[in-house]
């Protein structure tokens, strides 16, 4: 037999072995291998992935029975083809599978994907290698007159469900439009802050300002115009207070200097 044929046969064996480990119900075991030995590999590989998912999504896991969770976890393990070898990115792969490959079951709640996204966002900020910049801003700058300087470790998320309130015994909350600021502070702690629609709009404008040229006052004036306020004074005062609170929380670092 040629060496290329040998390599081809070996690859076929590898694929069949991997397919069985991934989904043993749909793919028969390789002939000639004792099932007791195969079970060691089946359990080792699946339990590895399942333990990571339980750690990455503790709230989501707590809201399922053990059987329901294992069915969900095994579905991901069997069906999803990961694009990364890094274990820390399993959470992102699981989220992608929930959004694109998972077929909802009767036991799945309508907030499944949003809760998973919220927990993934917390993890992503916790492990993000990016740190606070040291230059380019004045930490004591006037947030109305100057251009607010946003932390790179602050993200705004909009959900149809109050995902931050979901917990055992509180899994049947009614839907409610929810704006959550998820951020990491200088103490390396990931925190969240619930925003109302107006403060969420303020942050969205700040984060998407092309060239970051709008002062805090300009942002407030745009919102006042969008709301149809003839007198922008209350909106400006509210924006000033909100921006100051964000600076205290490390969501803003000050005002841009460059």
Short description, anyone?
With 258 residues, the chain is mainly alpha-helical. The protein is built from 9 helices and 6 strands, in the order ααααααβββββαααβ.
Structural category is: mainly alpha
Query: How many β-strand runs?
Result: 6
Radius of gyration: 25 Å
CATH topology of the largest domain: Outer Surface Protein A, domain 3
- Per DSSP, the total helix count is 9
CA-to-CA gap between the ends? 69 Å
Strand arrangement in the largest pleated sheet: 1-6-2
Q: How many structural domains are formed by the residues?
A: 2
* Beta-strand percent range: 5-15%
Classify the helix fraction into a percent range: 40-55%
Q: Major β-sheet, in short?
A: 3 strands, antiparallel
Poorly predicted tracts of residues = 1-5
CATH architecture designation of the largest domain:
Alpha-Beta Complex
Q: Briefly, what CATH class of the largest domain?
A: Alpha Beta
Describe this structure in words.
The protein is mainly α and 258 residues long. The chain has 2 domains: 106 residues, Orthogonal Bundle (DNA polymerase, domain 1); 120 residues, Outer Surface Protein A, domain 3, CATH 3.90.930.50. The protein contains 9 helices and 6 strands; from the N terminus they run ααααααβββββαααβ. The strands form 2 sheets. A 3-stranded antiparallel beta sheet has the order 1-6-2. Helix 2 crosses helix 4 and helix 8 packs across helix 9. The longest helix is centred in the N-terminal third of the chain and has 22 residues. The chain is elongated, with a radius of gyration of 25 Å.
């Amino acid at each position: 037999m040629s060496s290329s044929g040998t390599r081809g046969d070996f690859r076929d064996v590898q694929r069949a072995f991997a397919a069985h480990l991934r989904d043993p119900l749909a793919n028969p075991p390789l002939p000639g291998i004792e099932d007791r030995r195969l079970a060691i590999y089946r359990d080792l590989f699946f339990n590895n992935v399942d333990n990571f998912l339980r750690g990455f999504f503790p709230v989501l896991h707590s809201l399922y029975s053990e059987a329901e969770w294992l069915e969900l976890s095994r579905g991901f393990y069997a069906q999803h083809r990961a694009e990364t070898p890094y274990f820390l990115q399993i959470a992102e792969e699981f989220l992608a599978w929930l959004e694109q490959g998972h077929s909802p079951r009767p036991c799945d709640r309508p907030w499944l994907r949003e809760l998973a996204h919220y927990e993934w966002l917390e993890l992503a900020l916790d492990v993000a290698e990016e740190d606070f910049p040291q230059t380019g801003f004045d930490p004591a700058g006037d947030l109305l007159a100057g251009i607010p300087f946003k932390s790179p470790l602050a993200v705004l998320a909009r959900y149809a469900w109050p995902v931050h309130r979901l917990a055992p015994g509180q899994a049947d909350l009614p839907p409610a439009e929810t704006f959550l600021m998820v951020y990491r502070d200088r103490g390396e702690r990931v925190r969240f802050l619930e925003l109302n629609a107006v403060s969420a709009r303020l942050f969205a404008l700040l984060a998407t300002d092309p060239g970051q040229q709008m002062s805090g006052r300009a942002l407030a004036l745009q919102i006042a115009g969008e709301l149809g306020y003839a007198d922008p004074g209350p909106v400006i005062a509210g924006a000033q207070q909100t921006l100051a609170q964000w600076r205290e929380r490390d969501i803003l670092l000050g005002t841009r200097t460059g």
